[in-house]
Amino acid sequence: MLSKKVKSRITFLFVSLVAASIIIFIIFKSLEENVVYFFSPTEIIKKTDITIDKKIRIGGLVKEKSIKKDGKTTLFIITDLKKEIIVSYNGLVPNLFAEGKGVIAEGKLRDKKYFIAEKILAKHDENYMPPEVNKILEKSD
Amino acid sequence: MLKKIFPNKILLISPNFINKLIILMIAVFFLGLIYSLFISPPDYIQGDSVRIMYVHVPSSFLALGCFAFLGIASIINIIFKIKFVSLMAKSLAPVGMLFTIISIVTGSLWGKPTWGIWWVWDARLTSMFVLLCFYLAYILSWKYISDFRRANTTSSIISIIGLFNLPIIKFSVDWWNTLHQTSSITLTSAPKIHITMLIPLMIMLLGMLIYLSVIFLIKYKTEIMKFKLEKNKNKSS
Q: Distance (Å) from the C-alpha of residue A25 to the closest C-alpha of chain B?
């Protein structure tokens, strides 16, 4: 059998681990705003505490057929399939920036529907496959 | 029983056995690299930069696995006061930290062509950086605290606290919006990596696992020898 000393150590460790998990959970819950890397268009429209000159990131999918190039400026729409925000960006976009793919834009809101980006990041999803397989998948869609 | 047998048994492992493991490792890495660099196809979006994944994913996986071992061994040490479990954890820490560094470096190399940036402070990348700090703190506590019992307790507490970071790393991509993509390989659903890419990934994982075992065995043997020498010294003086 376990000795008394060992039993007391188990109890002590168990109680402190449970206490620590609760504390960590509460900390992360209250910091949620800062832990998320970007907001979706729906969250942006819902949020009331966003000021126009505050730097934020919004993320979602680049809407199909929404990319328009005008000289150096790229205009496109970020969507989360519920709400949309128009984004304008001055500069080079990453190679993987494409319609229907994930994107994150960093910059400032002009208003709730128009975003001026200073930086564009392409977001990659969790699917990996050879080009031939993708072609077959696209055909079957 | 286990207490008496295990630390002695490790000294019986011959250099010959370790040499055989090294030869096996070289063979597996050779096969894995040929497969991942030449045989496996490029990705439909990323092109050839997908090949970085064959190093990145196994090393991240093992970095987390090693720390899980450190944490569990430390809990056992705190409760039952079994010294050789701590020495096992101590021997595993450097290779775990190496895998963490490899994971972060290869991740950055992949991030630049894919995301368009080397590093961001999103939840996954930040928690992985925190893991590196925990490894460093664990190793330094062994290095700079000269009294064995104090070093043992301090390092154990550090790794038990660090244990909380593991689920945060694992689930960060599900709990919060991150730039890092969610897991492609999960227990609950079919892998989202095509089979021609999954095979080299698994071969590389096996190679790294053998590398981990080799480093661990050599280091653990040394630690046991050092510990015994120290004990004898204390006895004779």
A: 10
Contacts of A124 in chain B (CB under 8 A): 45-46, 114-115, 181
- Choose among B43, B123, B182: nearest Cβ to A129: B43
**Both A104 and A65 in a single domain?**
yes
The letter for the amino acid at B167 is P
Q: What is the predicted pLDDT for the residue at A30?
A: 84
Domain that holds residue A106: 37-123
Q: pLDDT by residue (tens digit) across A65-75?
A: 888 888 888 99
Name chain A contacts of B186, Cβ cutoff 8 Å.
none
Average pLDDT over residues B125-140: 96
The full set of domain ranges for chain B reads 50-178+217-236
Query: The tokens of A14 are what?
Result: 């168990």
Q: Does B41 touch chain A (CB under 8 A)?
A: yes
Q: Report how far residue B11's alpha carbon sits from residue B218's, in angstroms, rounded to the nearest whole number.
A: 10
Can you say whether residue B47 is alpha, beta or left, with left for phi > 0 and alpha for psi between -120 and 50 degrees? Answer: left
Are residues A50 and A115 located together in one domain of the fold? yes
Unique residue bearing structure tokens 């989360």: A80
Angle between helices B165-175 and B123-144 (to 10 degrees): 170
The Cα B207–Cα B25 span in angstroms is: 5
